[in-house]
Amino acid sequence: MKINKMIKVLLFASVFYLLAGCSDSSESSSSSSGDKEIKFMHLWPEGSSKQHYDVVNKIIADYEKEHEGVKVDLEVLSNEQYKDKLRVLSTSKELPDVGMTWAAGFLEPYVGGNMFAPLDDVIGDQLSDSFVPGTAEAYALDGKTYGLPLELNIVTLYYNKAMFDEQGLEAPKTFEELENVIKVFKEDGIDPIALGNKDAWTGSLWYMYLADRLGGAEVLNKAIDRSGSFEDPALVEAAQKVQDLVDMGAFVNGFNGLADEEAKSMFMSEQVPMYLIATWDLPNYTTNETVPQEFRDSVEYLKFPTVGGNGDMNSFVGGPGVGLFVAEDSKVKEEAKDFAAYFVKQWGEKAVTQAGVIPATKVDADSLDLPEMYIDILNELNEASNITLFADVQMSPDVAQVHLDSIQALFGKEMTPEEFAKAHEDALSK
Amino acid sequence: MNKVMSNKLLIALYISPALLLVLVLVFIPLILSGYYGLMEWDGIGDKTFIGLENYINGLQDMKFWSSAYHSFLLAIFSTLSLGIYLTISFILASKIKGSDLLRKIYLIPMLLSSVAIAQLWIKVYNPSNGILNVFLKQIGVENPPAWLADPSLVLFAIFIPILWQYAGFYILIYYAALKNIPESLIEAARIDGASAFQIATKIKLPLIKEVVSVTVVLAIVGSLKYFDLIYVMTSGGPNGASEVMASYMYKLAFSSYNFGYGSAIGFLLLIITLIVTFIVRKLTTPKERIEY
């Protein structure tokens, strides 16, 4: 009988506990009178991106000190979770006042849903001429800018100088020299180029550079914005060159099944001499203490070579990474905009010196204490004639998916260059 | 306790938490996704009603059908593999030395999380440094295949870890069922002079028929909605060669931002699974119940 009663009590308790859990027990924690609270969400958790995390906290602390009565309420999530949460919050119209977004294609649905505030006034007032050309533009849609870029990445070909020296090779300046380098390594039984094409955007980098060198800076952009076509001879030839490289055995065995991380580890364990990747990897080749010093010393970079004498080596593939947005229906929109602008201004130098991020704002490289490769890349950026935004970022998400699938098929030789062009035309004309 | 169970109100109260959870977490989203399937929706902006267009597109979408084909292939292979598990369970349930230890060994993959298994097998399959290809090279295979990159092999290369992952689960079920058979029946058969093989096929197997039929349903349904290892190991690639229905649905909704269409595909997946389950149940349910 006693047990019987106890079971009853327990079950009751559990039922009520459950029901209580369902109801909204939100605490009203509005802080002291008159304080304005800016909700800020970012994607650099302390665990995985400690340096970024610290820089952000420092900027927030400074801002709060300089602006009496404004508090920044921080929420930190890791990359993929961040994307998911942003989507969920946007459907319930509860976006943070300031948060992070990616450029171009990612923005589209948010801007279409009227979620992000245009920031042209902020750029005009506080940030005019502070961004590297081409970066803020990547966040523009229909003539309005919806994001303040924080990072900038350009893609260069990293190579292992020690391995090159062993074969008596020089850094290639033209595609023909590159082909020769590939042949020499091949003959010695070394796979020449690390490529993790499971992720497909990695292969897209090769295609984009070949397209840029063969057809100039605009040909790919035009094909994507529909003032041109993927059936442009230069683009078809670029696809053909990709397959020529595959035929030569330029890329590591089984690249279509490898993730970028796996390809990277092959490059970093000195099994493979070349790797095409963006500057977000720079710390691995300069400051990262967990990477053997010997390896870091032997890595150099080179600008993607010219093809058949064509192309401008100062034209880069790349693009801004994350940027800040301000929510359209934020209750503290003016403060949020002000904070975003402040953040961007503070971010530049701190980011590059403390977190190894190439910022989207202009910095004076020579005045900073940086590893040589950073200074070179920053100077490279100052001389850049053009930065072509990553193709899969430029495209809307559904077209980007077709692009990535087609890239895998092109590299895997399941598609001819003509079919590759046609797949894009079909997807874009929908 | 009897008194508690005769009180209607209390019964209602006790089942309500579970019922509520199932309703909120399963049935309502299910209906909603069928409804979203009627919309043109990117998941963020406004929804536009477009009727059955998504469903019609889905039925004409070659990529969907090829992913459905892959899912059914997986279902066939997992059903066939049940035979192997059954054989192993027969051996384990007979009194051989170390069967206890073996049973635990078979169960280990089930204790690992899918992502860990995926990472493990990605390493095994690595075309240059993976244990499999290193071994193949050792025994003189000139050009061992790049397992996860070859469109004609990738699907089967992933099937192996999937089947391996669930082996322990089915072996455990069969083992329990076999142990449940009264020793007296076996004893009687033995006295009548039945061989071990006859005991297995003529007595034990018919007695656990019901369990087998349940596992067939579990294997088929599990295969049709399978997602984890595919997503981690290849995300359906290269170029859709290892895409299954669930990964295709995920790709549409979360990579292409095509929530309406993704929901429609999800709903089609549900309908296909329901029909198949119904047919399989019809075919495999034994006519009469067995009483020991």
Word description of this protein:
The complex is a heterodimer of chains A (430) and B (292). Chain A is α/β, with parallel strands linked by helices. In chain A, α8 packs across α10, α8 packs across α17 and α17 packs antiparallel against α18. About 3% of the residues of chain A have low confidence. Chain A contains 18 helices and 13 strands. In chain A, the strands form 4 sheets. In chain A, strands 7, 8, 9, 10, 11 and 13 form a 6-stranded mixed β-sheet that branches. The longest helix of chain A is centred in the last third of the chain and has 23 residues. Chain A has 2 domains: 158 residues, D-Maltodextrin-Binding Protein, domain 2; 201 residues, D-Maltodextrin-Binding Protein, domain 2 (3-Layer(aba) Sandwich). In chain A, β1, α2 and β2 form a beta-alpha-beta unit. Chain A is globular, with a radius of gyration of 25 Å. With 292 residues, chain B is mostly helical. Chain B has one domain: Orthogonal Bundle (MetI-like fold), CATH 1.10.3720. Chain B is built from 14 helices and 2 strands. A two-stranded antiparallel ribbon of chain B has the order 1-2. Chain B starts with a helix and ends in an 8-residue tail after the last helix. The model of chain B has no long low-confidence stretch (mean pLDDT 89). The chains are: A alpha/beta (430), B mainly alpha (292).
